[in-house]
Amino acid sequence: MRDQVGPQCTENLCTVAPTNLQVSIGEELKKDPHEGRYFYPVLRENVGKSEEGSVMTKLTLQQFTGQLALSQKPSLIRPISPLAAATDLIKSHFDSGRLSDARRVFDELPERDVVAWTAMVSGYTSNARPEDAWASFRAMASAGVSPNAFTVSSILSACRAGEFTEGTAAVHALSVRLGVKGQTHVHNALIYAYSEFHRGMLDALQVFDEITHRSAVSWTTIVAAYVRSGDGGAAAQMCRRMFQEGVELNPFTLSIAIRASAAAENLALGRQIHAAANKTGHAINLPVSNSIADMYSRCASLSEARQHFSEMPRKDLITWNTMIAALDRAGSVDSCSLLLDMLSQSIQPNCFTFTSIISSCAKLSCLIFGQQVHGAAVRRGFRENHHIFNALIDMYAKCGAVADSRRVFDETCRRSLVSWTSMIIGYGVHGFGEEAIKLFNEMIGYGIQPDAIVFMGVISACSHAGLVEEGLEFFNSMESRYGVSPDAKFYGCVVDLLGRSGRLREAAELIEAMPFEPDESVFGALLGACKMHKKVELGVAAGRKMLNLMPEGAKTYVILSNIYAAGSEWDWFADVMKMMRGMGWKKDVGMSWIEVREEVCCFVAGEQSSPSAALASEVLTLLGFHMDEERDLLFSFGSVWDGGEKSYISNSVVIVEALG
DNA sequence: ACCATCAAGG
């Protein structure tokens, strides 16, 4: 009788959907990414548990059924019903992204049980179609089929992906009524879904606290939720609790713990978990290892990140991207050379790689290289990637090519708030205050809800362009009209706005009237303004406050000394200098870089060793003469030349032209 | 048939 099982099973399959089955069986076998071995996608589930993983080489249908009949453990093979086989087929279609095939098989079914319905819900969810998942879920209810724990956790995934806030709450209630809320998968899916929503962490935490038996999954879910919500401190705290309660150390718990340390910028904790990963042998797991490199970089320990990276025996695309992003974050030119290393190993960059490299170009003002990267990204078909486009807008603006920035902005089809913000900030830093304001109003016209950062952008644009009244107007209306409440950094921005234009008294009054304690950004802005307008007394007061807040701030001492110098308070000036020297502080080495043809050259102040530096220095001297002449000419025309920051940029540009 | 880990923007 049992010998019949295999062939019978085949017959059943064929009765349901003969055509599809042939296709499904005859095609290339699916590769298991973890083992590198091959499974039949459709048939694996039917026999998988019976044959210890049932690892098979390529088999035809005939061979497969033959093997079934010869199986050593035929008692474990169960005949499957036509409906179950069809459900497998649906799942297989979904797994390969053939949504319409899956749908057709489902529609042809003479009857549908909860498993078949759930396959539809979860199939749509895993193919990033939460709306269709929800539609199936509703249709299931209309058909009078009651969902089970599997359905509930699947639809919760869809609620998370589709940001169905109310749907999540409704399904939560449903899960209580069905009595499935207590099941591991359901409450973990609930935590995950809630955590994705604005202020959803409270709900997520409540679900978490109600769990009586917390699995490793529950813990990783809640810690990951805190990390995603941006609360690194809470994530690290939760992480400690997780280990205290003796959760197992597996690749999941370790990697999320490392991410939590990174989010909290807690290097000590990160090192501890790194050690634990080494000890348990999980450090060779790629996700774990990649997050270790990332953690070191986010905890400002680039050298440890580099060390770890160089010691990794295996690297994947994420490893490279993580390290490139780390170097970009640190503002190092090495991000670009690492890209070359990566390409030399025939690893193809993806959109993450491009975003980091473009960001590096922005930081390093590599316009020419940035343009090439832009071209490369377009050629590789990353035309629609949000992150890349926003990075490009930012890059062109930071490289001084605001018009190109605008061109990119205009051709972006789906502009996000970030795109608008990048463009507004781009205008702002170049002093195009009017354009920034115009763009901001245009954005509001499109119905985009502004956030704190875009307000900061437009207000600082006003500040740079001297549009004080306009800036104040934005500041005063942001909370009342748009419900965006200013934080301490905003006050710094507005103090800067008032201060730059010399309205220091108002700036000081604003600080007095602040609803919370002013932070260093506020006093820093005031201090800068005092320096600019040579207000010694107020500046000294601000500098003192600054030093109370950040006694390590070498920059404050520098500005303070400048203020004393500006007020000719030489005794005080000398005291500050002495204090700085006494604390053993040295100013960071000044460094400039320019892009010459395809290379970025770095110059340290006073450096003469390399031939290019010597040549550049020569050209610079020559240019100095010319500029002196120009300046004299300007003076003779009565123009103002303050010899300030502008000269640095123009020098670089001129040197590029001179050498190129 | 369901839940959890690694990389990107202002």
UniProtKB/TrEMBL annotation:
PPR repeats lie at residues 113-147, 215-249, 416-450. Transmembrane segments: none annotated. PROSITE patterns: PPR (PS51375). Pfam families: E_motif, PPR, PPR_2. InterPro entries: E_motif (IPR046848), PPR_At4g14850-like_plant (IPR046960), PPR_rpt (IPR002885), TPR-like_helical_dom_sf (IPR011990). Gene3D superfamilies: Tetratricopeptide repeat domain. This is Pentatricopeptide repeat-containing protein. The lineage of its organism: Eukaryota, Viridiplantae, Streptophyta, Embryophyta, Tracheophyta. The gene is PCMP-E64.
